[in-house]
Amino acid sequence: MEMSNARPSWDEYFSRLARMVASRSTCLRRNVGALLVREERIIATGYNGAPQGIPHCLDVGCLRQKQEIPSGHRYELCRGVHAEQNAIINAARYGVSTLGSVLYCTHQPCMLCARMLVNAGVISVVHQGDFEDDRALGIFKEAGVKVVEIRI
Fold first, then answer.
1. Residue 8: is its pLDDT beyond 90?
2. Is residue 84 among the annotated active site residues?
């Protein structure tokens, strides 16, 4: 990723940080990072991977990959927790409210995450594309959650 001398906007700044968070992912198919931000301050981060104490896909393989299940299907077979879900969980674990927050994510959230983000009080989603789920976009629209795609 090329860095310019220009000071990045808040959206660029947090989107770049989401990419760094994604580098911790243990998913074999897609590395996703997410940040929850309120008033230009990071309140939680998350990346996709197995729950604590459970072997990661890096160690035991990916069932969905072995069964050639396409991206966006059969989530129930995945041992991983999505980055957006982990950001919400991490905020809850440490008693941090997500009401009025903005999600920065390396990928567009799926429908499962969209529903959770709406209920968590997220008011805006800034994502970097690379995944399409029209049902998720519909949920965000119905709930009045602003969605912005950014390319950095």
1. yes
2. yes
